[in-house]
Automatic annotation (TrEMBL):
Protein name (record): Sulfotransferase domain-containing protein
Active site residues of this protein: 29 (for sulfotransferase activity)
Portion of the full-length sequence here: 136 to 407 of 407
Molecular-function GO terms, alphabetical: [heparan sulfate]-glucosamine 3-sulfotransferase activity
Domain Sulfotransferase: 20-255
Disulfide bond entries: 218-230
Record keywords, A-Z: Disulfide bond, Glycoprotein, Membrane, Transferase, Transmembrane, Transmembrane helix
List of residues binding 3'-phosphoadenylyl sulfate: 29-33, 110, 118, 235-239
Source species of the chain: Potamilus streckersoni
Amino acid sequence: NNYGINKGSNMGSNVTRSLPDAIIIGVKKGGTRALLEYLRLHPKVRATGPEPHFFDRNYEKGFEWYRQHMPASTKGQLTIEKTPSYFVTNGVPEKVYKMSKKTKLIIVLRDPVTRAISDYAQLASRRPSVKTFEELAFIDNRTKIVDTSWPIIKIGIYIQHLVKWLEYFPIGQIHFVSGENLIKEPTYEMKLVQEFLGLEPMINDSYFSFNNTKGFPCFKKQPNSSRFQCLNRDKGRLHPDLSHSVIKRLRDFYRPFNARIYQITGHNFGWT
Ligand code: A3P
């Protein structure tokens, strides 16, 4: 088996590649890129650039392949990757558990209604001929029965995915980040994430500046640098305008599932 390779082969001196200590497993469009880029500001964090998609697309390549896709790190540094599809892919919780049952899991949760609209905006930007949101979200437009088989709807039923992770990991090993609050109070959310990861809190207010043009926080790579960097243009897209009745229908649909998420996490995310 592969379990013995966690701390990896020696690349000379003290530098090596390690399997991840923590994984941002979801959710798609939750703010996962922002979180990873913020975490990377910490000197004790080494993070992947692209999403490795190991547990959902490349698992047969083995843990050694996975380890080679991790950034070089030194002892005492945490290795972190993010692949948001892990959260909703069958079989992934067990595979992560088999790598290491100590893996720390992080999920950025965002109002499932705005998450769906954001996901659709991304889809439409890549495939302009796509059907309208309403055509895809409802089984038929008259009854407005929500089509739960449409992935963009299904991803937002967070509780259904979360229970599958809880079969393998205790809730205390999963940290939930509010996607909304990550935009409003990045310093506060980063304080909680750093605590969860056992990191000395270093990513503080001095790293962030809210960019009013972009409508999002931008960040600097060094605390004493004067240059703030923002995420790419594909983060913070314009959302399509949907009618109030469509939004209300979706809100009503998600409400009971959201309530169970609040209950299980002990946190009211405020998605009304
Ligand atoms: P929108 O494009 O709908 O606004 P992910 O990285 O998981 O795909 O999430 C993308 C979302 O991250 C964006 O969705 C945006 O709301 C959110 N976000 C959070 N912090 C951001 C930041 N600093 N810059 C840009 N987008 C950010």
